User: Fold Capsular biosynthesis protein from Parathalassolituus penaei.
Amino acid sequence: MVNLNAGDALFGKRFQHFNFMGGLEKWEARLSVSLARRDFDAIVIFGSERPAHRVVRDVADYYDVPVLSLEEGYLRPGLITAEWGGNNANSPLAGNAPDELFVPEHMPEAKVFRSFGSMGTTAMFYFAVSNLFTFGRRRELFHRPMSLPKEWFCWVRNGYRRLAWQHRNFNIIQNLLEHYDRRFFLVPLQVAADSNMQEAAMGWNTMRLIEESMQSFAESAPADTRLVFKVHPLERGHQRYAPIIEELAERLGIHNRVDVIDVGSMGLLARHSAGMITINSTSGLSAIHHGRPLLVLGKAVYASPQVAICAMGVPDFAAFWQGGFVATQVVRRRFLDWIRHEALLPGDFYSRMGKRVASEAVARRIDEKLAPLWRQQSDSSVRQVEIVPRVVVAKPCVSGSTHVA
Assistant:
């Protein structure tokens, strides 16, 4: 396991590891030397768009070394994403769709591991330690710079807002479900530091999405509809979009038609919505699942014209308010089964049992990919799989099976 910052070192100290201390340029050089020597058969990374990961993908591609990208599951809970080459907009599935004759051989079973609290605690300590103890050029590899006091304050504020605003949020949701069923448009807001909010966003960010969607809604949306912004729960303590949205709604004369929430089941809200607008949040898959119109502004794994309205950076909000395209149930189910079959594995990154299930599933996926290579090798030496970062260490044994520490 390669630790690129202090947060990686905190959570990776139990495994065989190497603490890399340089910046991006040195990281590229170090990785190039290792892969030129064929020190590793494969690399596993968590994500694919962070600075260190882009270097990994570029160098590994040059040396023809496979890269397995892990990420939170496209479909949750109980599933993780594990794709060779990249995920989200960099997924080999992105922009594509299954053949009409596609039938999955087997489907990963999803089990609820109840790990949201653990996820929040892990994120809080990871980012706090990374900010406090990552120094010098090494900070080039860390994608989310923030001072330790501010980071801790934001997470404490997150918990406070979760409790303080819970009653208000539930009242808003109840009103939507009882009086505006299929008459509210849902806009999930993504985490500002999300790596998908870079090139894959095609020029869009949270503030631009808020401003342009509200302007169009005021001008073109049916008078009996509402616009609902859902703040990401991990962003709740770091940003407060509600005052900005409320002020803009007041100026546009739609203050009584716009809501802001930060809790609630995305599936429930999507099912009862008139449609969803997103830059490239995985929440879009929920809209596809429930058969609701979906407008995708950027690049995403599900940005396929078979199942979504793909704006490619230039959305027609006015047309979307009047009603959007929805694929048939057969097409939608086949598409989601394809995503699940090709990109997902059972498990979870935060609960103890979930990590065990995920580790075993990832090991099997590595086995499937590398078994032919191992069979061709004449020697019986142990080969390593380098993990970058925050992912379990996998060591293919002489027999070809993979043990995960």
